[in-house]
Amino acid sequence: MEYQHGGDIYSQDIQMDYSANINPLGMPEAVSQALRDCLEREVCSLYPDSRCERLRQALGRHHGVEDKWIICGNGAADLIFGLAAALRPVRGLVTAPAFSEYEQALRSVGCRTDYYYLREDGDFALDAAGMCGCVQEAAERGRPYDVVFLCNPNNPTGIPVKKEEVEQLADTCERLGAYLAVDECFCDFLDNSESYSVIPDLARFTHLFVLKAFTKLYAMAGLRLGYGLCSDRGLLERLQTVRQPWSVSGPAQCAGVAALGETDFAERTRAVLKGERERLSAALHDLGFQVYPSQANYLFFRDREEDGILEKGRLYQELLGRRILIRSCANYPGLDSSFYRICVKLRQDNEQLIREMTRVLERRKSCPNIQNQS
Known about the structure:
- This is Threonine-phosphate decarboxylase.
- By secondary structure, this protein is of the alpha/beta class.
- Helices cover 38% and strands 15% of the residues.
- It is built from eleven helices and 13 strands.
- It has helices spanning 29-40, 53-63, 76-87, 101-108, 128-140, 163-176, 233-242, 250-260, 265-286, 314-321, 347-366, and strands at 16-17, 70-73, 91-96, 112-117, 147-151, 179-183, 208-213, 226-229, 289-291, 298-303, 324-325, 327-328, 339-343.
- A seven-stranded mixed beta sheet has the order 2-8-7-6-5-3-4, with helices on both faces. A four-stranded antiparallel beta sheet has the order 9-10-13-12, covered by helices on one side. A two-stranded parallel ribbon has the order 1-11.
- Helix 9 packs parallel to helix 11.
């Protein structure tokens, strides 16, 4: 099966990976120490707590919600597929472009999936009123949506949706009996992230399901740890029954508790990445690319078609030949191979990427008819 995501460093000889949106500050030392302690205490030789009680209690305190509203999983993707299996929806709605796992999960249970396309002439920002109208219209036609997926901020664009607009969509879904799954896995990278999160609205909307993960912020992608929050206890119980037991390892649970103790880590991360994102965005713009206004830890950009800097897909291939991996967005619905996404790293790595991109463009200008050899 074709690999659908960033981070495919195993099938290719990659020196620098800019395709996976992982915190460049790396895993907090407290998390590394917790993992070492797990080995010393032989946690790996024991079955993990299938309900993740200690981790759920820590998450409940962290978010200010009841721990019985929380379910943990083997990454957010595990819960996305589990949610589809628990709901068994007939029709679902996802934004396009968006994380491909939503559609894959829905199709795995035979759900018909429709797209709500984000408009390029609006910088791919969500028209919340328009999406609410789409959900309302489907219900009026007698073909209601059972579940709606929304990524905030959007992946791959990095553009957030205002909390009031998400609440507007949640209200529409609640009224029409549809579940709204809001993926907030990148929300912690936003300035004033709490002003975007709808976790405080869980008591108000029983059909609201919020997805979170430790993967990106805490650089724990290999440990696989995500969680969902929902006030519908019945749904959480169904979700628990359709998933395999012991899906979250003991070390992952210990790492999660330790990560939550790093209270200033997110703030330090945002402070570092904000400046680097602005510098990297300006550098891409100076190279002639169209850069969209991401507020996350990654940038979304494209070749300006009127300038014809490179043929579609050429930048990806040229950098791959230099053992540098960026994310081609060709397989996102609504996009093509002229769109790319790169993660924001630390200054030295960002500058290295710009140097290599500059060389690609200079080579292209000096040899316009050259064929890609990668």
